[in-house]
Model the fold of this input.
Amino acid sequence: MKKLAAILLVPAIIAVSLLLVLEGSLSILLNHPDTIPSLAPTLRHFYESRECYRIQSDLHCSVFNKDLGYVLRPGRCEFDNREFESSVSVNEEGIRGDNESLEKPDIIVIGDSFAMGWGVQQYAAFPAQLEISSGAKVLNAGLPDYGTPRQLKMLKRLDHSSLNWLIVEYSSNALKENLAFAQSPESTAVPTEDDYRRGVMNNRTSSAYYIGKYTFELLPALLNEQDVATEPVSTEVEAEALAAALSPVVNLIPARTNIVLIDVTPPAKRKKNLLKHFRQVLASERFSALEKRIIEVDIGDQLVESMYFPLDQHLTPLGHRLIADELCKIVGCEP
Done:
């Protein structure tokens, strides 16, 4: 019996060793997704669906809100993933920043996770960098997973009394919510408490690691060259949805307030002529009020891959710095 156990132990040790080597190798590949460019989409899809921990689905960092689906939990929390570690300080309105920034801001930034500063420290996010450079009070109202309709709902809650500039950060992540609004403005559903709780549980489960996860889940996807492409939406349709979702903004803010739109979608998902088509859509009478007040800032040629985390695809501090510098040219910054 002891001889049999000894004989069986050898292949077991070999199998475990091979598993650990495979796990380590695949983990290294995840750390460097551009090593083999053809595999990068699959690696990013695996990270996004099976590893990434989302701040909006963390009970320490977020809380359900019946009007918006969720807001960030006031206070401070740690938000980390494979490529970054960050601390997030949240004011009483449930957005990133201090309570002082809620009072009579000169500039408000609305948007999603890119505006919030996903993966970077508080001071490195472009709204904070813009405040430092301009000397104006800037309120960062960006929240992950918010499409344009919910961004405007958050904007409605904020103090507009001294608002001179509204910065609208756009990424393709807003497309689904924008399309739903464009098709039926009155029936766009905000996530329910059940949706929020389900998201918390799903993210906790999907992001958890177990020994062999990369070997049994990631490796087959890589070997089979898993197709992660989604059904494309035309540039014209995306521009139309953005215009429809954003147009109510003119009735939410003072007439003196200038509106600036900037597209920060990562290169792999960015539609090159989106802002051009957006301007063409605004030429119709339906959007004339918005057309007169909005400025589009097109820096797609400058926002290159190196300004995004290779795997996570959110902006690095360098990308945030570039955006702040470009916005300075519009709003005016101190020398």
Q: What stands out?
A: The mean pLDDT is 93. Residues 102-191+233-331 form a domain with the Rossmann fold fold (CATH 3.40.50.1110). The first strand starts at residue 62 and ends at 65. The two ends are 82 Å apart (CA to CA).
